[in-house]
Write a structure and sequence with these properties.
The protein has 654 residues and is mostly beta strands. It has a 22-stranded parallel beta sheet that branches. Strand 17 and strand 18 form a beta hairpin. It starts with a strand and ends with a strand.
């Protein structure tokens, strides 16, 4: 059997090998003198038309072809006689007794034909294709046609293989192809005419050079069992070229079928090709994130981020990054539009370090999400503005970020520049929930915080977080959670800090300053209405201390929860440790009026009452009861038991 084709590309595999021309069977097949008989057979015609053009695929007889006829009483093999034509042939063999017959081409092994190892010689060559068919339980075998119509007329059915035609547009750099694989996550395809399914179809090619349009046309014989590709299925198309391997993801928006007896056409454009995954698994998509299991695989992330698109990554093991000494932040170049979803899956990244010149951190600018991961023994060394373990920026204008269930432990050292934090130097369009930082921060600039230094003018929400360790700045505006809130509506809710805070002035156990970015003055504190929500936060700091002051002047003061605040902020339910270790610069202590005292809740309609000192504009909340634990305080003021575990002296995130 040989094959020939008609040209014109079909959509979604719907071109048929049908419209068969039958041979009449009015006369019985002639007997010969040796007891053999001659039977007559017709191949499928395959002359469908669409839009006036011939389409489809056609088969024809060739020398050496054989048929097997099987009945309930026995079977015989028939060999082709000379004088056959493309569509009609006569076969000779012994007669078969019985009333119902199965006629198989090319032999009785048709059902187990192996279609898994096919090789195509040259671009758009189809000489390797095989026609395999079975007329099942028909009432005649003397004169028949391989067509569903003939089978139905004679009380049976037809099983016949199909054809998959793949027209693949390749990148301009590809000149030849040696292998093509179409793969699914689960077994979808038949690689024989039996019942067993496989998850891939594979075709080897020899001397298959791309045409002038950089296309390769590949042909495969497909099973007579029809494979269904459900809507929404994502298939991986992999091509081995003369230089390397490339792959892409193909998503079926509607159900597809590899139909038997038909030409099924699969078209792929030149978009979306990528190098094969250097990760443990995955495709970088939401359903199939790239899975990272080694430190080396971490180094590939940066090159696989694409501006204007989102890529998904997931840890599959704990990662020790001690041997990666010169980490380049993933998204540190303008316009910062490389979006990422980084899922730690509960694993830990240890010994991460970075001293990059621009936004030294893991992400640089985090545009996207980071969640369910721990960083331990992290080291950040910065000599420029803006640094933190996660990012110099957490989000930026129009490029928001979300951080959830992330813990950071390590050291951040900044020798110059403002905006330093355990997570981010600056947070902008950023949400941080159920996170923690146990950090040692040493900074020489302003706006320093346990989670972030500055909120940069666009809303930030922090909820259910804690910090510990030590936070030191030789300048000012320092807080256990945040250094400076300047955006209208930024919120810090249900958070605590046990970190020690040391700086010159304007510092708080939770927030250093919250006056809408205005300079420190009583007028700004009185008149500004940034509507920051600092609610149910607990200052349980080891100490809050003024240091590094070299003059003898009185300075803007500090507070247990907020160092300096606009009086119209929402300051609700704050609690400080009853015996909080709190000290200001010598001039303020001498002047008096800066001692901690209990304050009622405040809002724009009910502004905060400041302290009696000249620059005492901090918010202290109310002192805890003597002997009350941090967990008891958190539970008393209404923190959620769904988020926090209160069984110990300090609350723990669940």
């Amino acid at each position: 059997m040989k094959a020939f084709k008609y040209f014109v590309v079909l959509l979604a595999g719907l071109a048929a090998i049908s419209c068969n021309k039958e041979i009449g069977n009015e006369l019985p097949a002639p007997q010969d003198e040796t007891g053999l008989i001659t039977i007559r057979a017709t191949m499928p015609e395959g002359d469908l038309t669409k839009a006036g053009a011939h389409v489809g695929f056609s088969w024809y007889w060739s020398a050496g072809d054989k048929l097997t006829v099987i009945s309930e009483e026995g079977s015989e093999v028939y060999t082709i006689k000379e004088g056959f034509s493309a569509k009609f042939a006569e076969f000779v063999g012994k007669p078969v007794a019985g009333t119902k017959f199965t006629i198989m081409f090319p032999n009785d092994k048709a059902a187990s034909t192996d279609l898994s190892k096919q090789t195509q010689a040259g671009n758009d060559n189809y000489d390797h294709l095989k026609y395999v068919a079975s007329l099942n339980n028909v009432d005649d075998y003397l004169s028949f046609s391989f067509s569903p119509e003939w089978a139905a007329e004679h009380g049976g059915t037809l099983s016949q293989t199909g054809v998959l035609k793949m027209v693949i547009a390749l990148p301009d750099t590809v000149s030849a192809v040696t292998n093509i694989v179409l793969a699914a996550d689960s077994p979808l395809f038949y690689t024989s005419n039996g019942d067993t399914k496989a998850n891939r179809l594979e075709l080897a090619l020899t001397d298959a050079k791309a045409d002038s349009k950089h296309n390769v046309t590949a042909w495969m014989t497909t099973s007579w069992n029809e494979a269904v590709v459900p809507a929404g299925t994502s298939l991986s198309l992999s091509v081995k070229t003369d230089k390397n391997s490339i792959e892409k993801e193909v998503v079926f928006t509607k159900e597809g079928k590899l139909m038997s007896g038909k030409v099924n056409t699969f078209n792929s454009d030149a978009k979306g090709w990528m190098l094969p995954s250097h990760y443990a698994s995955g495709k970088g998509t939401q359903d199939k994130p790239w899975v990272i299991k080694t430190a080396e695989q971490m180094t590939y992330i940066k090159d696989d981020l694409v501006e204007g698109e989102i890529r998904y990554f997931k840890l599959g093991a704990n990662i020790d990054m001690k041997d990666i000494k010169d980490w380049t932040p993933l998204n540190a170049a303008s316009p910062y539009k490389k979006q990422i979803d980084f899922d730690g899956a509960g694993y830990t990244i240890s010994n991460f370090s970075c001293s990059a010149a621009s936004y030294p951190s893991f992400f640089g600018v985090l545009y996207g999400k980071c969640h369910d991961v721990k960083f331990t023994k992290a080291v950040i060394n910065a000599s420029t503005k803006g640094c933190g373990v996660l990012g110099g920026y957490g989000g930026t204008t129009g490029l928001p970020c979300e951080v959830n269930k992330v813990h950071v432990q390590g050291t951040i050292t900044s020798t110059a520049g403002n905006n330093v934090g355990g997570f981010f130097g600056t947070a902008r369009e950023c949400t941080i929930t159920a996170c923690s930082a146990d950090v040692v921060i040493e900074a020489k600039g302003q706006m320093v915080g346990g989670l972030f230094g500055l909120d940069a003018g666009l809303g930030v929400t922090v909820r259910d977080c804690w910090t510990s360790g030590s936070i030191t700045s030789t300048a000012s505006i320092v807080g256990g959670i945040c250094g400076d809130l300047v955006a209208k509506g930024s919120s810090i809710i249900n958070c605590f800090s046990t970190a020690s805070v040391t700086t010159q002035f304007i510092f708080g156990g939770i927030v250093g300053r919250a006056v809408a970015g205005q300079k420190s003055s009583k007028s700004n504190c009185t008149n500004q209405d940034p509507q920051n929500h600092i609610e149910k936060c607990i200052a349980w700091n080891t100490f809050l201390k003024s240091d590094f002051v070299t003059d003898t002047a009185e300075h803007y003061g500090s507070g247990a929860i907020v160092g300096q605040t606009a009086f119209k902020n929402y300051l609700v339910g704050g609690v400080r440790k009853a015996n909080l270790d709190y000290s200001l610069c010598a001039a303020n202590m001498t002047a008096g009026g800066y001692d901690l005292f209990d304050q009622e809740d405040s809002s724009p309609e009910n502004p905060m009452t400041p302290g009696p000192g000249n620059y005492a504009f901090g918010y202290n909340g109310k002192a805890s009861a003597a002997g009350e634990t941090l967990s008891q305080v958190a539970k008393r003021i209404g923190w959620s038991a769904d988020v926090w575990d209160f069984s110990g002296s300090e609350p723990k995130l669940k």
